[in-house]
Design brief:
Blueprint lengths: L7 E7 L4 H16 L3 H21 L7 E10 L2 E8 L19 H8 L2 E6 L7 E8 L9
Antiparallel strand pairs: 1-2, 2-3, 3-5, 4-5
Helix pairs in contact: 1-2, 2-3
């Protein structure tokens, strides 16, 4: 489990509906390379999909603005997903009613992620970054 050194990957996607699927494909390949446990990788796929879909659906601004995705292992026991877009409006969890056909994405992120949040981008970049972290199981010590 997670024998690779702590690492980071970054991808850029157009703000189009198909980008969520493309991000999932790239992520699953990376998760396999990093030897992320299957259950954690499946949960991370849901989280990534929600964040990218939200950026594609709700980020206002020119269509030619790209969505940035970063996936990293800051420690061997944490997987972090970051999605950046050109919209500076920070998201908030909504309370969707049973009749609503959407509006549950951040509720799902809050329920599945160990932690999550959003912040405005700095260093001259426009927009925001929404991030979430997922605790990964620690490898068993073979000497214990």
């Amino acid at each position: 489990m997670l024998t690779q050194p702590v690492d980071l990957v970054e991808w850029m996607f157009p703000r189009l509906p198909r980008s969520a699927g493309r991000a999932r494909i790239r992520f699953i390949r990376q998760a396999f390379e990093w030897e992320v446990p299957v259950d954690a990788a499946e949960t991370a796929l849901i989280l990534l999909s929600e964040l990218v879909t939200n950026a594609c659906s709700h980020a206002r601004g020119p269509r030619d603005r790209m969505i940035g995705v970063r996936v990293l292992l800051p420690t061997p026991s944490v997987l972090r997903i970051e999605v950046s877009d050109a919209n500076s409006d920070l998201p908030a969890v909504r309370q969707a009613t049973p009749e609503d056909e959407s509006g549950r994405g951040l509720e799902l992120v809050a329920a599945l992620a160990t932690s999550w949040g959003a912040h405005l981008r700095g260093d001259g970049y426009i927009g925001k970054t929404i991030w979430c972290e997922l605790a990964l199981p620690t490898p068993l010590d073979p000497h214990a």
